[in-house]
Amino acid sequence: MSSKPGVLEPLRVRVRRFQFIVGLGFLSLVVGAMLSVSLVLRLHARVNALPSDFLRIPVAVVLEDLWVLAVLPAFCYGAARIVALRTWTTAVGAAASGGLFVLALNFVRDGMDGLTSGWSVASGLRVVAFVGGILLSARAIRAGRAAAERGSSAAQEKAAARKSEYDEFLKAAEAGGARLEQRDGGAAAEAPVPSGSTPVVGDSTATQAAAATEAPPPSGDASRAGENTAPPADVPKTPAA
Description:
mainly alpha
């Protein structure tokens, strides 16, 4: 059961690509038809005022096939900027899908007479315009892919520049942190360390004050008693018998 998705995946990719190409051609035809109608209504009087049919017919063909000459190349360019498209497959497929839709409309409106009759210089010019639209679409796809590659390379260069700037900032931050650590270490090494044998001035002063208060001063009576005490008198000697 696990091998079925792998087998069907290429077919799904082709179906999606086919749907994208058909949708691109149909969308170009719809937008181009609206643009052509608006331009024909505005330029109808001027086109009819041209002096010769050799000028009126090419202008009319360009206005009618504006979807394949201008709209389809523009859409192909925009799609190629986003999605990787095959050049000739996309150009021919999108133009063919739009052309087949135009033929289907003519068949529904006029039947087989709309397909077989009416071949003239204008019909040949329409074929030339169709081929020119395919060439323009292929060129637009190449230009879109080239622009997308340039944009991706520019984005990669910008990302690399930002990464280098971040690396430089990180290195500068690390260097600043290292210098700060060295400065703190030097300040700690220069600070004096107190030793246990060094006498403390406050303690010695307190000890001397305590000793002075404990020793009693000499009293006045004792001093006077010492002064009044007479030295011992000479004992009279008794004559011998």
